[in-house]
Amino acid sequence: MGTRRLLRTFAAAAALFLAAAPDTASAFVWPNVPERIEKGLKSSDPSERRLAAQEISRLPVALAKPLAKKAMLDEDAEVRIAAAAVAVKIKLEGAGDLVTPWLTEPDARIRLAACEVIRVAPTDKSVAALGRVLGDPTKEVRLAAARAMGRATSLEATSLLLGHLDDSAPEVRAEVASSLGRLADPRAVLPLVGKVQDSDATVRRTVARALGELGDPKATSALVLALNDSVLDVRVEAALSLGRFGGNEAILALAPLAQAAAEGTKTTPSSESVHAMRQASLRALGRIGTPRAIDLLVTALDGDRPDALRTPARDALVAVGPAAVSPLPVLLGGSPSAAAATGAAHALGAIGDPSASSSIVRAMQRGVVPVSAGLSALGKLGATDKPGSSDALPAVLELISG
pTM for the full model? Predict the structure, then answer.
């Protein structure tokens, strides 16, 4: 049986255990079942031990733990693989230390199982061994090792992962980048910047996300470059990541994308791409939340649909929070478009600052804000327990009765 077939067999078996296993925290089992499984694990017949190991997944966690540990020490590969699947299912404490020696086994299935166990039960003792497995001849094992490395707490993990950003398999390169982002070690920033133009789109998207997670402004220029990527998913991820940095360079790059197109225009593949980038850029500006970013979001309200319950610019302003309140009454005091006025009112209501109620009422009285939108916003303000939340009630009653 070839290596790939063996790996598929292990993966299928693990999936079967996870799907078939009951809720191990509360599962009922007959009193004799744990005893029968323990007896089976002591059998001299490997086939009986394999069946017993598979049965462990049916037990409650408290009963499964000691039996899984026992089965993980078995000399038979099939027994250990079955026990590893159980360890993954129940997140068995200390299992990572038990399987670290497996990483040198000649059987690729065993090495793969060890990586999966270490991922859910990480241990710093396994980091060096996982680093060696990152060069494994089997792609699936390298992939699992990279994923497990992302759960490590040792600083050594970053150094080991950085040596495999150029793996021959794009899936592995992407997983290495993802783990580097998760580890949040600033040493990974510049090497990841060098992968923004990787030949594989999934790798480029993952790198953009990882750079955002690292949050180092040194990556800003690389992410601005990624805004011009040929693949939409990469461009979207780059825009979202820029929202973690702030700074003039990021805002200048996001501004034209945020203002690019109005909602509700005729849908074409090209317009869908523009809308996706607009939404991502607005979310990014909402995360940045500086006065300049807020001004751009307020301007972007013109591009939202006035009849939609939630819109990108409005949601981004709400994400900013109280800092976004002050320019919205100014907008309502002028002659805004229906989309901008409705969006501003809804944003003020969702942010929940009662001081904005008078601005909404005046805009309703002038016909700038539709009554339904204004009442909805005021209803949200009135639902708060903040001082002044009911101050607008007399004016609203007068408006309705009039």
Answer: 0.85
